[in-house]
Amino acid sequence: MISGGWDSRVKFWQWQGPSQLTVISEVYLAMPVHYMSVAYPLMVTAHQDRLIHVWNLEECFKNNSFEPTEVMESTLKFATTAITCFSNGKGFCIGSTEGRCSVRNYDTTRSDKNKALDFCFKCHRVEDPKTKSARVYSINGYCFN
Q: Whose CB has fewer CB within 10 Å in the chain, the N or C terminal residue?
């Protein structure tokens, strides 16, 4: 089990039953975890200042080192409001308060991170062509099937 909290820590737990839960590792990130998503072997956490931490869980458990694989800044300009891993664990989507979506491909089995396949788009907005303005709504979550 993995938990992330406002204490700026991500904890990796070993569960052996209802009354036997022990921490096997704890990582201090220096900023609260706002959002977290996992699709093995990929785990991502989103924080203030648009920072994203990425873990390759397969490598973490194999090497018994639970530090993030990469720390990156979101390609979106405003605060993160949602983050979700693809069902196959080969990337993730980031949503923001500006009604934009960023799709990041991140295959943990490849050295090139498929950056050419990354893209952003505007969504969740109602545009008025007469006034050339728009009502923008934040993205609150993603779901893949």
A: C
